[in-house]
Amino acid sequence: MEIASFTIERVQQGLRAREFSAAELAREALRFAEAENPKTNAFLHLCPARALAAAARVDEKIARGEDPGPLAGVPVAIKDVIVTKGVRTTCGSRLLEHYVPPYDATAVTRLEEAGGLVLGKTNCDEFAMGSSNENSAFGPVRNPIAPDRVPGGSSGGSAAVVAQGTAVVSLGSDTGGSIRQPASFCGVVGVTPTYGRVSRYGLTAFASSLDHIGPFGRTVHDAAVLLGAIAGRDPLDATSAEAPVPDYTAALDGQVKGLKLGLPVEYLKNLTSETGDLIARGVEVLKKQGCEVREISLPATDYAIACYYIIATAEASSNLARYDGVRYTRRAVGADTLSEMYRATRGEGFGAECKRRIMLGTYVLSAGYYDAYYLKAQKVRALIARDFSRAFEQVHVLVAPVSPFPAFKLGEKIDDPMEMYLSDIFTITGSLAGIPCLSVPCGKTAEGLPVGMQILTRHFDEPTMFRLADAFEKAGGAAGL
Ligand code: GLN
């Protein structure tokens, strides 16, 4: 079995032709993941019992002649900030090293109902805070394409397993770019759906007004199938949307002629690197397919990073208050009083980046600074969202880079948080506006490093985003010129 290159369609075809059973596929996928994982450290732990039980259910359905579901037999990996009943969920943190959740995230329940096999949990930056996966308490992930480089973050493990072939698809989470940026660095497709499109129930909260669950795949089609399986209203998440879920695969029809594309001038003006060249070539490919291109201005872009790091840290400081040593397993030993126990638990449990953000968030929410920082940031967020609404009065889609640079070397930016925060300069705006966006492979630099192209659309217009990405992928990306 050439499992490393399997797509969802290939899995389904194999099951239908009785080339393999779901149980055989699960065993092979687990064996392969265990053998290959030391090269990247992308999986933190596997859950063979769970994968085999799900495979047995798929095989029984097939034997009874029932429809086993759109993800039948598909090996899936789950970012370790998404809870899984009975399977350790660490959030990349020492604090939760031994935490075993008593329930499943809705997205996990749904993908298993669709026949998916959860193979294991993937490495990530601690509580999804980071852009390189180097903030994980369990060691960094190596980029499968260039092992001396980072896979991006925070969903570095989920991008790496798909690039490496140790899972067919995976789930990640995005707050400011954590799906698109690692997808770009690893050369896979990564989707941040509209805010509220996928239930956040069971996604460990980082910044609740920005957190999204979304899929990774080696093809646009695979990511579209996975999103279709997990999307939709969930009574357990009050922010999940009522909007009906269309058949995303039906949008992959190549009909992109006449589509109006906008190029954000603020994103491209300083981009003179190889990344900029590849995106420019990608845009030419889309023009060749009949898309109309014009420049668009998103004037509030310059304030996006400052705005994000106020709102995200404010929400994080509140969300992370729950890790107090009383709940969630870890408690420091030897403290004499309650407040000493809180301090010691949090002091030894959280890594440096989490502490930095809790302090910053507490500061911007404090009585004396709330208006100057938090309130101001909320106003800027509204301006950023307005920029997009205005843009989408003129064009259907925006096309942009994902990151200003390709995967950087392990250790290269770890001592400079500001430099690290700049990784997300092009992704944060879409997250703040809550619009759907994805990264699709565009091409590679001379050194062979993948570069992703970002496609952003109106709220709930995932079909147009997928349609364009799929047409671009089929044309061969920037090489299709
Ligand atoms: N890299 C950004 C951060 O560090 C985004 C993280 C994310 O999207 N979870 O906050």
Could you name the key traits of this structure?
11 strands, globular, 3 domains, Amidase signature (AS) enzymes, alpha/beta, 481 residues, binds glutamine, eleven-stranded mixed β-sheet, 38% helix
Please, could you describe this protein's structure?
The chain folds into 3 domains: 3-246, Amidase signature (AS) enzymes (Alpha-Beta Complex), CATH 3.90.1300.10; 260-296 and 379-433 and 452-479, no CATH class; 306-371, no CATH class. 38% of the residues lie in helices and 13% in strands. The chain has helices spanning 8-16, 22-36, 48-63, 106-113, 156-164, 180-186, 220-230, 265-268, 274-288, 304-319, 338-349, 352-365, 370-394, 417-421, 428-433, 462-474, and strands spanning 43-46, 75-79, 117-122, 169-174, 189-192, 212-217, 260-264, 292-296, 397-401, 437-444, 450-457. α2 runs antiparallel to α3, α10 (304-319) crosses α12 and α10 (304-319) crosses α13 (370-394). The longest helix is centred in the last third of the chain and has 25 residues, at 370-394. Glutamine binds next to loops.
